[in-house]
Design goal:
The complex is a heterodimer of chains A (about 525) and B (about 120).
Chain A: H1 2-31, H2 35-63, E1 67-70, E2 81-84, H3 86-109, H4 116-135, H5 139-157, H6 164-195, H7 200-207, H8 213-219, H9 226-244, H10 253-260, H11 263-288, H12 296-321, H13 327-348, H14 351-382, H15 398-412, H16 418-432, H17 439-462, H18 477-495, H19 497-513, H20 515-531
Antiparallel strand pairs in A: 1-2
Chain B: H1 7-36, H2 66-72, H3 77-87, H4 92-113
Classes of the chains: A mainly alpha (about 525), B mainly alpha (about 120).
């Protein structure tokens, strides 16, 4: 019992700790003027958060049902709760793991930068926001956590504040992001107006017309037409999430923000921040509204819309990838392309399609973080992002180039790397859904992506150097170790695909679709509260 | 299709392993042949002749962009003119136009589906 309570507290602590530590860092920096202290502080903090996220994941996996934390002891739907199922716990672990590696990498990458205490403050802030988004069981709290993530991300994009390009990109990102969160806020108004609640479990119960005297006692019955209400809520919320996920045509902010931001932040944005948008789309279209018979028509149309959106995203972004000369902008378009593939999986609306989407979300997060961090090593050394000007630099840092190639091959979909396995799952999902011709989308976009990555590898590895790099050595261990860990993860996630699908991905799909269990856990908490 | 059978993943892994073994064997053979037949390159041999002008090797390289454009320059020009020059202008109001269009589409589509 004590163990259960402790793990429940860990749920709240996982997003709260980085927030507290983020606010404490500027105060500490007033007293302790050593960047080594700030760096160690952030790395230690992110390591503790990783341990917490791992504990949460293991506990959720072990008990086989969502864990719940009631803020202030108030149960759902009275108070704000964190309700963490396997999808939330897995996403939390993904966020915490990659953020830990990025924190280590940042130490060397930003060794000459000024104001790093603010960088680390915002880095912890963005981590807190993302963890809050994937753990929360409350639609309004999701809005708050999206804002926490976004505000920290805007600041990080503008980190090089003496650079006009960075300020412009951050302002554009902030304007587009604020419009998105405002639209999501409007959808929350519709949500409350329709359902009389903002708790996710309560919304599911009301959408599925579940009879629960306890919930009816607290939040009443829906006060408006659920079908029309849900259609408007979903339209507005999904639009807002596609901005966060950088899906076409809401992706414009991403290719501008990447070149302007420090490279570790590009890895955070493309590897993780956009995945929060994907997570929210999955949560809304499957767990919250997906299981309701009453809304089946709306959900079916939503899936078709998402499928078409995914196809457009993948095509347009892959076409744009190949004409880029800026390495970070090229990788940014690759993100839009992969988000398109993920949306195609979601848009199928089948368990296998969802499995492909979740598996590709994980694989893309790992491979894209690796690709950005490896590209960052070249940028850090050559002081340029132009692909042609990076000519030949890879020869002087073979390990970094090797990790870059692993990431590129994984994203293109070369077996046995992780990207191939999730694309293969998507092929099967498309064939299983009777949409075999759409497999062409994956093949064509992957071929275009291969062309774009070959351009980089050709320049970095095969072309004669334009400058004298004779004094260039392999990347510093603080940059290289995260790269090697991520490269190894790309290989392991691919080679262990049969095991992963069986033991992790399919259980996550089942947990995501099991909205009855999600409601049951919330109801148990409410009943326990009412009986006490 | 059974969701709990993942034989295809295992088959892919075996196929990849075989390809790696075959490729490694051929590469080893190539290295062996290369080590037996040594080619001697003189500095004169790699020097570029450009009408008598001094042209370093690294200055004679072609932009990586040509790798793509050489193939599709004409065939996809119109498509690129739309997606690059009209959509991705970098101007916020242009972005918001396309974003609003998508908002209108999703709101109308889902609202109609609720009828």
């Amino acid at each position: 019992m004590y163990m259960v309570n402790m793990v429940e507290n860990f749920l709240a602590l996982t997003p709260s700790l980085p927030i507290i530590l983020a606010f404490a860092l500027p105060l500490i920096s007033l007293v302790v003027k050593s960047r080594r202290v700030w760096e160690s502080y952030t790395i230690t903090a992110s390591f503790i958060i990783l341990l917490l996220a791992l504990t949460n994941f293991m506990r959720v996996y072990e008990v086989g049902k969502p864990l719940i934390y009631k803020f202030g002891g108030w149960p759902p739907p009275i108070g704000i709760v964190y309700e963490v199922d396997l999808l939330g716990a897995l996403m939390g672990l993904l966020v915490a793991s990659i953020m830990f590696l990025i924190a280590i990498y940042s130490v060397k990458y930003l060794e000459h930068a000024h104001g790093v205490e603010w960088y680390y403050t915002l880095l912890l802030g963005v981590e807190a926001g993302m963890l809050g988004c994937v753990y929360t069981g409350d639609a309004f709290n999701l809005f708050v956590m999206l804002e926490v993530t976004s505000v920290a991300a805007y600041g990080l994009v503008a980190f090089y504040r003496s650079n006009k390009e960075a300020i412009e990109a951050a302002l554009k990102y902030a304007i587009v992001g604020s419009i998105a969160t405002t639209v999501y806020f409007i959808s929350l108004a519709f949500l409350y107006g329709t359902y009389g609640t903002l708790n996710m479990a309560d919304i599911i119960a009301k959408s599925k017309l579940m009879v629960s005297p306890e919930l009816a006692l607290i939040s009443g019955i829906p006060v408006a037409n659920i079908i029309i209400g849900a259609a408007i809520i979903l339209a507005l919320a999904i639009w807002a999430f596609t901005v966060k996920a950088a899906a076409f045509p809401n992706h414009f902010w991403l290719p501008d923000a990447h070149p302007a931001a420090p490279t570790p932040i590009s890895a955070v944005l493309s590897g993780l921040v956009v995945k929060v948008g994907v997570y929210a789309v999955i949560r809304f279209s499957f767990t919250i509204f997906g299981g309701a018979e009453l809304l089946s028509n709306v959900i079916s149309v939503l899936y078709i819309v998402l499928l078409i959106l995914g196809i457009f995203s993948a095509f347009v972004a892959s076409m744009l990838m190949v004409v880029q000369t800026d390495i970070k902008r090229l990788i940014a378009y690759s993100t839009v392309m992969h988000i398109g593939l993920i949306f195609m999986g979601i848009g199928l609306g089948t368990p296998l399609g969802l499995a492909a989407a979740i598996y590709h979300t994980i694989n893309h997060a790992v491979a894209k973080a690796l690709l950005f961090l490896a590209a960052g090593v070249f940028i850090y050394t050559a002081k340029t992002r132009n692909i042609d000007e990076l000519a030949g630099i890879g020869r002087y840092m073979p390990l970094s180039t090797f990790t870059f190639i692993i990431a590129a091959l994984a994203l293109v979909g070369i077996p046995p790397l992780n990207g191939f396995m999730s694309k293969l799952t998507l092929y099967y999902a498309l064939i299983d859904a009777g949409l075999a011709p759409l497999v062409v989308v994956i093949i064509v976009t992957s071929a275009l992506a291969l062309l774009a990555y070959v351009k980089i590898v050709y320049s970095v590895w095969l072309k004669a150097p334009l400058r004298d790099y004779s004094d260039v050595k392999e990347a510093h261990p603080l940059m290289l170790v995260p790269l090697l860990i991520l490269a190894l993860t790309c290989i392991v996630l691919g080679v262990t695909a049969p095991l992963l699908m069986d033991k992790l991905i399919m259980p996550t799909v089942k947990a995501t679709l099991n909205s009855d269990l999600y409601v049951k856990v919330a109801l148990e908490a409410l009943r326990k509260f009412l009986s006490s | 299709m059974q969701l709990n059978t993942y034989d295809i993943y295992t088959m892919i892994l075996y196929a990849t392993l075989s390809m790696v073994i075959i490729a490694s064997s051929f590469y080893s053979l190539y290295l062996l042949v290369k080590s037996i037949r040594r080619v001697h390159v003189t500095p004169e041999k790699i020097k570029i002749y450009a009408c008598g002008e001094d042209l370093p090797v690294n200055k004679a390289s072609v932009s990586g962009l040509n790798f793509y454009w050489g193939v599709v320059k004409r065939s996809l020009r119109n498509l690129y003119a739309t997606i690059r020059d009209k959509m991705h202008t970098g101007i916020l109001s242009d972005w918001l136009f396309f974003m609003s269009l998508w908002l209108v589409i999703i709101v109308i589509t889902l609202s109609l589906s609720a009828r």
